[in-house]
Design a protein that fits this description.
Layout lengths: L5 H26 L5 H6 L6 H12 L2 H13 L6 H23 L5 H8 L2 H34 L5 H16 L3 H35 L6 H11 L22 H10 L9 H11 L2 H8 L3 H15 L2 H5 L1 H11 L13 H6 L6 H37 L5 H23 L6 H4 L1 H9 L3 H13 L5 H20 L1 H5 L9 E7 L2 E7 L2 H21 L20 H21 L1
Antiparallel strand pairs: 1-2
Helix pairs in contact: 1-9, 1-18, 3-9, 3-13, 3-14, 3-18, 4-7, 4-16, 4-21, 5-12, 5-14, 5-26, 6-7, 7-8, 7-18, 7-19, 7-21, 8-18, 8-19, 9-10, 9-16, 9-18, 12-22, 12-25, 14-26, 18-19, 22-23, 22-25, 23-25
Length: 575
């Protein structure tokens, strides 16, 4: 994979100038209107529904999707699309039932939700925890995977320079506040989609040329070739392996590794819903885009994002399957078979010009996610820690200034952790790394939010116990359950398999982490209910709920129905 040609560099520079120039124009146009903290952190009343929807997608589709999900497409296939397609349903649930509660009760941050509904202790604990998660897990993985992909495409040996460049671009946008992020995300997502689809189209043409010998590749023929050559990669539901212990010499060893990541139908009754509902509904990084809007605008924007999610697997997953077929047929001689390198391997085939567009799309996804993430970090730190515990009398200007310093510090910390891949993100596999380690806190957090919203008796004590218990249960199922209860129980089935890493064979025994999340959640909810039953019948801090706010107008209903019909068709076709 050689360096970029002149035309590629020109295309990338045009992207950079357009995004930067537009961001500066938005900043200068809006700063005379309002300079308050809510305007800076939430873009209060400024974002349109299409800007909210585009910003949600731009923030979500980042390095872990382009690189990590393409890698899982290479390894597992279309089954990984469940994360994207179930997200479409999750966004419908968020838009109809969650967002009205946030807006009705004037919630601006997730820790504020916890303080309003429960108490300050729960709020502070989770504020610190979210800051840790966003910086150490999310920010680092986005930066490392993105820089690694671009570095691979450029021929290697520039990883650290690329990391610094990505951070500087994100810093330029992030310091402008949510308004600048939201509106530049519209351009980012346009570049992302155009570049992503162009890459997929060319990848399918290459498959037709290399596998079928076509002089001029046909994308539709290439897609049919993928389905013919790798039919197992086009199954949404993975079958449960018939054996629970395998070795490298056994063909079932690979099937076990796939099932541990995506445990077939079982994950739809467990962790898959928790992953999506917690991510889209209880996550400052995501909900922040809608919290400054009115209900109609916020709801439409979220549903628009849900509709777009149906098409994301085409961009982020198909290149991985194309890489798998080309690799197994010997047409990727420079590729070592490590799944997180699959997307970069495909980009190496692209001609001059299109390669620059693909790099711009990848950069757009990375920069948008980095900017959005650090804005959420600064929002939580400033509004929920600095203002409440460090300087209660802080002025609006001081809060904005503090938020900007929080962005700079978060970026330096992320750079320090990714400089030598201290966390081992590359070895774990990017997409799995994020889902697995986020999954340690998701069960308790989602239980706390769900019961806090919709059950009047949930107490602050139950919430505190719930978030801690959910975390401890996730660790227990991940690290200790098999040693204590064995591999086969009524709750789970654990699998033992061998994995070759850097020439060393490792024997691993684990329960599928999505199953772990499911049981952690259900047990946590049960304990929280029992604790709350000992409290008052109606918690005095219960939220105000007006059932009329859950009603949707006809236009919204049509968008929901169309999304569900398309999703149903996809599952029927690829079940």
């Amino acid at each position: 994979m050689g360096n970029l040609a002149t035309i590629d560099i020109v295309i990338f520079l045009v992207y950079f100038v357009v995004v930067t120039g537009y961001g500066i124009w938005i900043y200068n146009r809006k700063k005379s209107t309002s300079t308050g903290s809510k305007d800076y952190f939430l873009a209060e009343g400024s974002l349109t529904w299409w800007a909210i929807g585009a910003s949600l997608i731009a923030s979500n589709i980042s390095a872990e999707q382009f690189i990590g999900m393409s890698g899982e497409g290479f390894f597992v296939g279309i089954a990984v699309a469940a994360y994207e397609w179930i997200a479409a349903i999750a966004l419908i649930i968020i838009a109809v039932w969650f967002i009205p509660i946030y807006l009705k009760n004037k919630i601006y941050t997730m820790p504020q939700f916890l303080e309003t509904r429960y108490n300050k202790s729960v709020s502070l604990i989770m504020a610190v925890f979210w800051l840790f998660l966003y910086v150490i897990v999310n920010l680092t993985s986005i930066l490392y995977l993105g820089a690694l992909a671009i570095d691979t495409l450029l021929g290697g040996d520039n990883l650290h320079i690329i990391m610094i460049g990505l951070l500087l671009m994100a810093l330029l946008i992030g310091l402008g506040g949510m308004k600048v992020i939201g509106y530049t995300d519209v351009i980012q997502v346009a570049v992302l989609i155009i570049g992503g689809f162009a890459t997929v189209y060319m990848a399918l043409q290459i498959v037709d040329q290399r596998i079928n010998g076509a002089a001029v590749g046909n994308a539709f023929a290439g897609f049919q070739t993928l389905m013919n050559e790798a039919p197992q990669h086009f199954k949404l539901m993975l079958d449960k392996p018939t054996t629970t212990t395998t070795t490298l010499a056994m063909p079932e060893n690979l099937s076990v590794q796939k099932y541990v990541v995506l445990p077939g139908l079982a994950m739809y009754f467990a962790g898959q819903w928790i992953v999506n509902l917690n991510y889209w509904g209880c996550n400052q990084y995501i909900t922040q885009r809608a919290l400054g809007a009115d209900l109609k605008t916020a709801r439409t924007g979220i549903l628009f994002a849900g509709f777009l999610k149906l098409f994301m697997p085409i961009i982020v997953m198909l290149p991985g399957i194309a890489a798998y077929v080309l690799y197994t047929k010997g047409h990727l001689p420079g590729f070592n078979g490590v799944k997180d390198g699959a997307y970069s391997a495909i980009l190496g085939f692209l001609p001059s010009g299109l390669k620059g567009l693909a790099v711009a799309a990848l950069t757009a996804a990375i920069v948008a996610s980095l900017a959005g993430k650090v804005n959420s970090i600064s929002t939580i730190f400033t509004l929920d820690i600095y203002k409440k515990y460090l300087k209660a009398d802080a002025t609006e200007i001081q809060m904005v200034r503090t938020g900007r310093w929080a962005i700079i510090v978060a970026m330096f910390v992320a750079l320090a952790f990714t400089w030598t891949d201290v966390l081992g993100i590359g070895g774990e596999g990017g997409f799995t790394f994020i889902q697995k380690y986020t999954g340690f806190i998701s069960p308790g957090v989602f239980a706390m939010f769900l019961l806090g919203m919709f059950w009047k008796r949930t107490t602050g004590t139950a919430a505190l116990v719930g978030v801690l218990l959910g975390f401890l249960l996730a660790i227990f199922f991940n690290s200790f359950a098999v040693d204590i209860f064995g591999k086969e129980t009524l709750l789970y089935t654990a699998f033992t398999y061998e994995k070759l890493e850097n020439g060393v064979v490792h024997t691993i025994t684990e329960i599928p982490f999505l199953i772990n999340m499911g049981w952690s959640f259900f047990i946590t909810v049960a304990v929280m209910v029992m604790i709350s039953l000992a409290g008052p019948k109606v918690n005095p801090k219960v939220f105000a709920i007006d059932t009329t706010m859950f009603k949707v107008d006809n236009r919204t209903l049509v968008l929901i129905v169309v999304t569900l019909l398309l999703l149903t068709a996809l599952y029927v076709r690829f079940w």
